[in-house]
Amino acid sequence: MSVQAPSAAVLIRPHRFTPNSQTAGDNAFQSTDPTRTPDEIARAAYDESTQVAETLRDAGVNIHVFEDTESSRPDSVFPNNWFSTHSGGRVAVYPMYAPNRRTERRPDVIEMLKHDFRVQDVVDYSGLEHDGIYLEGTGAMVIDHTNRVAYAAESHRANPLALERFCASFGYEPMMFEARDSHGVPIYHTNVMMCIATDFAMIGLDLIASGDRRMEMAERLTAPGRTLIDLTADQIANFAGNALELKGTNGRILALSSRALKSLTPAQRSVIEASCEIVPLDIPTIELAGGSVRCMVAGIHLDRRSRMAADVAAGVPAAGSAETAPTAGA
Fold first, then answer.
1. Helices and strands in the chain: count of H runs, count of E runs
2. Given CB 3.0 to 4.6 Å as the disulfide criterion, which of 31, 113, 203, 300 pairs with 194?
């Protein structure tokens, strides 16, 4: 087993997807498609997310799909920004930068986690929004669950005070750094430029402004014996860094977009395939919103309840008990 690769995840299937106008200002990865109507884009995103869920389930990942029919939540397909899960039964809920993303936080998702998994504590940081302090989950942070380090690129979406507060509570070491794309634009979310797996890490080292920090991060990432895959700026722009390691039926897989896979070199693929099966997912419409597979799939790092324990938690009576018998007139 790997603490880095969860075997279950949450996926939100959007019915009214569209690139978010409130996030376009600092998300250089966003784009538009004037050749399609909004309805055509929404239908395509729905179909792409459906195929992602089916493909990951076929690989043996336990995917929990939730529907979102609201037109006021254009980015709801990216749930990893508003919650994360952690060993020891802990869940964090995060403050979001864009006002129209704050309603993405869903009690039904948290209740599912409590019902199906062992949740001891839910820590809600969303109140920090009132002070203009934001930390957008495992988009703003890339977490090394093995070494207990939370990496975060400086941006509007990753406030250092919120990062320190999260790390102090959840037992991670914070490591913040400055990163910019080839045009000098700050990286808006850390998870578009780096991915940490069990045996390798993918990262755009050249995007890190400080040479000392670049060297420190490379050393920390490789310390447990990982191989470092250095991504170019062009590969980052094609979402090669926005990948996620998961545990499937036959071992670990690396989920990433078809576009991202095409950008990798044969040597980079060989490093990945030494420990993971590569599972490419075709999501060109969803990538218009400036995020890719890692943003879509919120891994569940929690212990699963037994079915009996889950029923007890939900108040379902045990089989054969008096409560299961139909009452007169039922």
1. 10, 15
2. 203
Cβ-defined contacts of 144-148 (< 8 Å, 24+): 144/4, 144/196, 144/220, 144/221, 145/3, 145/4, 145/86, 145/87, 145/301, 146/3, 146/4, 146/198, 146/224, 147/173, 147/220, 147/223, 147/224, 148/172, 148/173
- Classify 2 as helix, strand or coil: coil
Per-residue pLDDT tens over the stretch 189-243: 999 999 999 999 999 999 999 999 999 999 999 998 999 999 999 999 999 999 9
Q: What gap in Å lies between CA 78 and CA 229, rounded to an integer?
A: 25
Cα of 188 vs its chain's centroid, Å: 14
Strand ranges in the chain using DSSP code E only, listed in sequence order: 8-14, 62-68, 83-86, 90-93, 121-124, 141-144, 149-153, 173-177, 194-196, 200-203, 227-230, 244-248, 251-257, 277-281, 298-299
Q: Which amino acid is at 122?
A: V
Measured distance CA(54)–CA(298) in Å, rounded:
15
CB-based burial, 194-219: b 16+ in 10 Å, e otherwise: bbbbbbbbbbbbebbeeeebbeebbe
Token reading at 214: 């670049």
Q: Provide the pLDDT confidence category of residue 2 given band limits of 50, 70 and 90.
A: confident
Of 123, 32, 38, 33, the residue nearest 84 (C-alpha): 123
Would you state the pLDDT for residue 310?
52
d(CA 2, CA 299): 13
Is residue 117 within 8 Å of residue 303, measured between CB atoms?
yes
Calculate the CA dihedral of residues 164, 165, 171, 177 and round it to 10 degrees. Answer: -20
245 Cα distance to chain centroid: 11
Alpha-carbon separation of residue 70 from 12, 17, 97, 112, 287 (angstroms): 12, 9, 19, 20, 19
9: nearest Cα among 286, 259, 295? 295
